[in-house]
Each structure stands twice: as structure tokens, then as C-alpha cells.
Design brief:
Layout (H helix, E strand, L loop, with lengths): L3 H17 L7 H14 L5 H6 L3 E6 L5 H16 L2 E6 L2 H16 L8 E3 L9 H5 L19 H19 L16 H5 L20 H11 L2 E5 H8 L13 E5 L5 H9 L1 E4 L1 H20 L5 H27 L8 E3 L7 H31 L4 H28 L10 E10 L3 E10 L3 H9 L4 E6 L9 H6 L9 E5 L5 H4 E6 L8 H16 L4 E5 L3 H10 L2 H4 L2 E3 L5 H13 L4 E5 L16 E4 L10 H12 L4 H18 L10 E5 L3 H4 L1 H8 L5 E5 L2 E2 L1
């Protein structure tokens, strides 16, 4: 609960922002958001509040509400007064950088107290000074799950030159060691040669630890009052020892921006897979590494012997499972996926899998013992230990995949609310012939989010411009595990923009059903030049890459010259080129997919018309989607109405939200999918949009 002193100080800080921030306008919806954020975060440290969900809030804040300031101001003030860390997590690095370099500095200069801010990144974003000095060192770890590709001599020379430039810049203090701070893109293979993971780091034994970018960044995090992170890092940190990467979540206030993507993100975080033939190769390589390291570092014979015995047991279980899959799975035709119906694992696989999981755990134990011995040896021979630890860390990571896969494979679904999706992928590889991938993932992130975040975080606010689907919070709350909290705050803060006067949503009459892709594509080709002929800037969003490219190829040459298509250059270059064209008075049209429907800001003439070629539904054929639909239908519900429609509603709202970005903007959204206007579920999707004027068919406004 907020104290009177806290309320008074918050009002004083708001007054300071009114006076000091150019163009700031205090709006009632934003004040409502600030109050909700403050009251929610004030519940930190109260166990009864955590049990009932009073420490949690979901806030949908429409475009133009001043969402960022609406959470930053009360959160920063309360974090200061309560002596807590504040973590703001967004969905992408680009949004992190916008917070760090634009939004936070503008607010910080108005506040009457200091705000120490830093960006949190995973260890893999920073160079390892030891490995950089060794120019990549001896590479013991090669991923046998990837096709071997021997680089051409020119590529190898380029890599050597690049690593030399990195080392020189780091030694002279011209580069911090942050991958994102290097002016050019660094290929993944090159970066892996000079970075390391947690298992590959010798920590306090490293003679370069005082210059280590990761440890310097971690010290900054401990000293910062505001930490900007992304969702991936937050989830990873929540799965580690408290304080390893981020401050202890139990004593932290958190704001999760762009939270609509969090449920899908946590499913990706949990999903796991491993190969069989490929795994056999790297397991043998791991055993060879332990033998070589034991000799080179004078560790004795025991660590190597234990790892070799564990490797034999694990490869034996993998071979047994390979045979069992070959006997049981009947891949249909050219199909390369065999799915466990209703997630049910064959009894024989369960028996083998339990033994396999135990063997993987034993090998992990053996490699961890080897790692401890190598870290101890690093006191005398740091360079030799570091080179081998990097390889060992790689293998420990691969073992984690096996253990996590079988944790999901063997999970007792009968005692859980939601089942697990389990399937086998068959693939042919040049290195191993026919191989299988064992794959598993939860079909919802709800339970994992409750375990990782909601039951542990001190207090949290989830916000986005699109949290409601078809006007309802319930689909998001169900997917994110928040329905279980009766005192959870819900707030809808509508956009202040005058959609009724400044924006038109048009659904033209079309002959083709979007499922008839060829005819629908032809109708798009016939409509686009007419719709956009007089627009200075436009955005055309497609549901599939194939249709986007077919439309682009079929456009009249004169019109195609004004089109910039996603994939031709980087997203940043694409948008910059579009803006340059419009600034010169040249018409410009962006063609893009789902990633251009989110987080793209094109105010004024940069976008006066958004065209949505087709309503976007999740691909129903993936094993995870099939398992989700199967589970919903087993409950007697319609998978289309319970899953597909809400998800399509969120995507439609995101796409339509690209039109008005400032109060002065105006324009049109055209949806070339007649189902939006002539189906009952299309009417539900319209409920989730801002209050556009709507014209269906030949132009009648509704």
C-alpha cells in the first residue's frame, strides 16, 4: 500500500516532469496508468499479496497514451523510496535501446534524484578476453547436429583478420567487448571463437577477470537502480541461482513491456530437442576431451575414466532408442514428423527414456567433476584450462538439452492441467545418414510463468498496446498463467487519438476466398496500385512470404519501383530508405511480414495507408499447434474460436496500430480479406480494434 509520503513525492516528481519535459501533456488515462502501476508495485514484500496476485497488474495502453512514461515514472520513484531494483524487460534489443537512449534520458533529466541505469545482456553477448588473446584457441567443440561446412580459405583468412581487429581494438580500449557495440555484424562462428558460456568460464581464476566485459557489466547491474533487459534474459535469469545475472527477483520490481509476446516466448524457452546419431558423435568427442584435458592439465586418470564410462552408457541408450523409433514410427509418404497422439509416449520409449535420462545425468555429473578440476588447475595454467573449458561448456550445454527434453518427455501429464507436445523428426544428414530428433515442449507457458515469475517476483506490471483479444483480457491471462490470481489488477487505457475522425478501416468486396491463394493474389495485384497510387507512404503486410514475393513479382514495373520489400536489406536499412524516399517527396511502399506489424513507428507521411493482405492465423500443422488444438477440442471447445481467433485478433490489432502514431496522423487501413466483414468471428475481431470508421463492401460506413 502506498504511504502518503510516497504519494506526495510522486506528485512532486510528476510536476517536475510537467515543467521540464518539452511537449509533455498530462492526460487522465496516463494518470490512471501511473496510479495502477504505483499501487501494484507497492505490494512488494507482502506474502499475502503475492498469493492472491495483488502484486501483479496487466495494463493495455493504446497508442499515444504515453505508456513508457506511464510506468517509468511511478516505478522509478517507488523503487527509490523502497530501496529496490527496478527491471524493465522488453521483447527486443531494439526496444531496449530505445528505452536506454531515448525514453529514460528524457525522464531522468527531469527527476529530482539520480537514476543509475544499465542494460543487462547475457554472457554470450560479451567477448572473453582470454579466448580473444588466444585468437579463438583450440576448438574442441563442433556441433555434429549441424552439417559440416569447411570454410573456404578466403573465409578463414577473413575470420583471422576480424579476430585480430577485435583483439587490437579491445587492447587499446577502443571497443568495450560488447558484441552489439562493434560497428559491423560479426558472424556467429567468428563470435563463438572469442566468447564463452557460463560453463566455459574459469571465473575468479582468470587473470583477465578485471578487464572481463561480462563481469564489469554484472558489477554495473548490482550498482544500478534501473536495469533494462529483454524477456529472454529475464526468463533465463529466473531459471538460475538468484543474483547470477539479475538481482534476486524476490526483491525486485519488474515491468514487462510488450508483454503480449511473453506466453509464446516462455514456450520457446522450455522447448527442447536432441538428436540421436549426432548426439552419439559429440558424446564420444566429450569423452575424448576429458582424456586429453586430464593428461594436459595433469588431473590424473579418474575424471577421464568416469566420463568415458558415462559416455558408453549414454550412447548405448541412444542406440536402443534409435532402434525403437525405427520399429514404432511410420512416417507417412514424404512426411518427416511423427507425433505422439494426445502426447502419449509409447511404453517402451518411456522405459528407455528413463534410463537415457539417468545416463545423461551421470555424464553431466562426470563432466562437472572434470570442470571443477580444470578450474582448480587454471590457477597455474589459465590459458590451457580456458581453451579446454570452452569445449567442455559446449558439451555440458548439449547434455542439458538431453536432460530437459526427457524431463518433458517423461512428465506425468495426468497430474498436470495441460499436456505436453511430443514428436520425432526424421532427417537425412551427410555426416550420419538417417537421424532422428526427439522433441518436446509444453503447449502453454502458463505453469512455467507461474513457477518462474509470478510466484517469485516481488511485484510486476505487464503492459502492451495489444493485450486484449477481441476486447477481452481472458485469452492472454489464460496463456500467461494469470487467471489463478483473483486480486490481479486489469486496466484498459484507451488511445487518446480520434480514430472516428482521422482513421478509416475499409474492407473491400472481393471475389476470392483467401484460401484460394492464386486468385486472391491476383485480386491483391489488381487492388494495390489503385489503393496506393496517391499515398506518400504506405505499409503492406502479408501473412506469408510466398504471397508477398508473388505479389511483388506481379506488380507493374512502374509501381514496383516504389516498393521496398522485407528481406532485400536489413529491417533497419529498409525503414531508413523508406523514410528517405518520403522525405524527398517520392512515393514509397513497404512490403513486410509479421515483424513489420510490431514495433515499427512510421508517423505522418511515412504511413498514410496500411494494407493487410490477409488475416494472419498460426500455422496449424506444427506438432505443437496440433497438440494445442487436440487438447482444446478434447474439452469440447472449438480450437478455432478458443485459439485461432484470439491470436488473429492480436495480430490484426498490431497491424492496424501502425497507422496512427501521433494525434495529427490520419489515413486508411484496408483489409483485403472479406472474412473480416462477412463472418461472425470477423465481427469479434473488429471489437478488438480502436473505434475506426468502418466501410464494408462497396463503401457503406458502419
Amino acid at each position: 500500500m502506498l504511504t502518503e509520503k510516497e504519494k506526495d513525492y510522486m506528485r512532486r516528481c510528476l510536476d517536475a516532469v510537467r515543467r521540464g519535459m518539452p511537449g509533455f501533456q498530462s492526460r487522465q488515462p496516463q494518470l490512471r496508468m501511473m496510479a495502477a502501476v504505483a499501487h501494484t508495485l507497492a505490494a512488494i514484500g507482502k506474502p499475502d499479496a503475492r498469493q492472491q496476485g495483488a502484486h501483479l497488474a496487466v495494463i493495455e495502453a493504446g497508442t499515444g497514451t504515453g505508456k513508457t512514461l506511464g510506468y517509468l515514472l511511478p516505478a522509478l520513484v517507488l523503487a527509490r523510496l523502497r530501496g529496490k531494483h527496478l527491471v524493465v524487460a522488453s521483447s527486443t534489443v531494439a526496444l531496449q535501446e530505445q528505452l536506454l537512449h531515448k525514453d529514460i534520458p528524457a525522464l531522468r533529466q527531469c527527476l529530482p534524484f539520480e537514476v543509475r541505469c544499465t542494460m543487462a545482456k547475457g554472457r554470450a553477448r560479451y567477448v572473453c578476453p582470454m579466448r580473444l588473446e588466444m585468437r579463438g584457441g583450440a576448438e574442441f567443440a563442433q556441433d555434429p547436429d549441424a552439417e559440416a561446412q569447411d570454410g573456404a580459405p578466403g573465409d578463414r583468412h577473413r575470420s583471422v583478420r576480424l579476430i585480430g581487429r577485435l583483439a587490437d581494438a579491445f587492447a587499446k580500449g577502443n571497443w568495450s567487448g560488447d558484441r552489439d557495440a562493434w560497428p559491423d555484424a560479426i558472424a556467429e562462428a567468428d563470435w563463438q571463437a572469442v566468447s564463452c558460456d557460463r560453463q566455459g568460464c574459469i571465473g575468479g581464476q582468470c587473470p583477465r577477470i578485471k578487464r572481463c566485459p561480462f563481469y564489469l557489466a554484472r558489477q554495473e547491474i548490482q550498482e544500478a537502480s534501473l536495469i533494462v533487459a529483454n524477456h529472454d534474459l529475464l526468463l533465463a535469469a529466473a531459471d538460475m541461482e538468484p543474483g547470477s545475472v539479475l538481482p534476486d527477483l524476490a526483491d525486485t520490481m519488474a515491468v514487462l513491456d510488450e508483454a503480449h509476446g511473453l506466453p509464446a516466448k516462455v514456450i520457446g524457452h522450455c522447448a527442447s530437442r536432441h538428436s540421436l546419431r549426432g548426439a552419439r558423435v559429440w558424446i564420444e568427442q566429450a569423452a575424448a576431451l576429458t582424456r586429453e584435458a586430464a593428461t594436459a592439465l595433469r588431473l590424473g586418470r579418474n575424471p577421464g575414466k568416469s566420463a568415458a564410462a558415462a559416455a558408453r552408457a549414454l550412447t548405448g541408450r541412444l542406440d536402443t532408442l534409435y532402434a525403437a523409433i525405427g520399429e514404432h514410427c511410420r512416417f507417412e509418404g514424404e512426411g518427416d514428423v511423427w507425433r505422439c497422439p494426445h502426447g502419449a509416449l509409447p511404453d517402451r520409449w518411456r522405459e528407455i527414456g528413463a534410463e537415457l535420462a539417468q545416463a545423461a545425468a551421470e555424464m553431466t555429473k562426470a563432466l562437472q567433476a572434470m570442470r571443477e578440476a580444470m578450474v582448480a588447475a587454471a590457477a597455474d595454467r589459465p590459458a590451457q584450462a580456458q581453451a579446454r573449458l570452452s569445449g567442455l561448456g559446449f558439451y555440458l550445454g548439449k547434455l542439458t538439452h538431453i536432460e530437459q527434453t526427457w524431463a518433458w518427455m517423461l512428465r506425468d501429464d495426468a497430474s498436470q492441467t495441460l499436456p505436453t507436445a511430443r514428436w520425432i523428426e526424421r532427417r537425412a544428414t551427410a555426416a550420419h545418414g538417417q537421424d532422428y530428433l526427439v522433441c518436446a515442449t509444453p503447449i502453454s507457458g502458463a505453469q512455467k510463468l507461474r513457477e518462474l515469475l509470478w510466484a517469485r517476483v516481488g511485484a510486476a506490471v505487464l503492459t502492451s498496446a495489444t493485450l486484449r483479444a477481441c476486447g477481452q483480457f481472458e485469452p492472454f491471462l489464460e496463456e500467461s498463467g494469470l487467471l489463478a490470481y483473483p486480486e490481479l489488477r486489469r486496466l484498459d487505457v484507451p488511445s487518446p487519438f480520434d480514430y472516428a475522425c482521422r482513421a478509416l478501416l475499409r474492407i473491400p468486396r472481393l471475389r476470392a476466398h483467401p484460401r484460394n491463394v492464386e486468385v486472391h493474389t491476383q485480386e491483391i495485384l489488381g487492388n494495390l496500385p489503385v489503393l496506393l497510387q496517391n499515398e506518400p507512404g504506405a505499409l503492406v503486410l502479408f501473412a506469408s512470404d510466398r504471397q508477398m514475393r508473388e505479389v511483388y513479382a506481379g506488380l507493374p514495373e512502374g509501381f514496383r519501383d516504389r516498393v521496398l520489400m522485407q528481406g532485400q536489406v536489413s529491417r533497419r536499412e529498409l525503414i531508413a530508405c523508406h523514410k528517405q524516399r518520403v522525405d524527398r517527396g517520392e512515393p514509397s511502399v513497404l512490403f513486410g511480414l509479421a515483424s513489420l506489424a510490431e514495433g515499427v513507428d512510421l508517423p505522418g507521411a511515412y504511413c498514410t495507408h496500411v494494407v493487410i493482405a490477409k488475416l494472419s492465423f498460426a500455422v496449424p500443422g506444427t506438432p505443437m499447434e496440433l497438440a494445442r488444438r487436440e487438447w482444446v477440442e478434447r474439452q469440447g471447445r472449438s480450437a478455432f474460436m478458443a485459439l485461432s481467433v484470439p491470436e488473429a485478433g492480436i495480430r490484426l490489432a498490431q497491424a492496424a496500430g501502425r497507422l496512427l502514431r501521433t494525434p495529427e496522423d490520419s489515413g486508411t487501413v484496408t483489409v483485403l480479406d472479406p472474412r473480416l466483414g462477412n463472418t461472425h468471428w470477423g465481427k469479434l475481431l473488429l471489437r478488438g480494434l480502436p473505434p475506426f470508421r468502418i466501410a464494408i463492401g462497396d463503401g457503406a460506413l458502419v
